[in-house]
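Quick note —
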Amino acid sequence: MKTTLKISSKNKNAHLKTAQIIKNGGVAVVPTETVYGFAVDAFNLKARESVYKIKGRVQNKPLIAMAANVESVKILVEFPGKALKIAQKFWPGQLTLILPATQLGKILSGGRDNLGVRIPDSAFMLKLLKETKTPLFTTSVNPSGCESAKKYEDVLKFDGVADIIVDGGKCGFSYESTVIDMVKFPYVIIRKGCLDAKKILECI
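Predicted structure written out below.
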């Protein structure tokens, strides 16, 4: 077992230490406003593979990319139709959009034609993403097929497995993000989450 650094998200240096570990290829457990997530450098293949191994997740299930802003997302995905309007209205927020991958996005996602992306509405995560300066690949903290971790006590089972665990207490929403596939029209609601997907689509 490895030694896992544990730190409170209230620590003013928490995002700096987490970013440093991620940049060095480590696996971080981080709090978001929805549920806790594993986070790794999107450009580090070995780190991404570590997340799959830790979760027992099958390789054909993609990770979600998180970024600090829309411009950072555009290196990974394209915005067809009304997707950009939706993104600008509901990001930062509890909305994951599945969009066509750019050439770089395809490379980083193992050849997938589409990629799920989100800009979280979490002060800690936004500071972390601005510090890493590159998107992160994320997925919920849990063994594959099990309930997502919503509070700090839930993630301690990964002590000795992850490189750093950030204590953010209980996640504000404690429910997964809403997922909408906007690759082509008509758009498809993949997962009902924190936000009312039907109301989101009514905006366009």
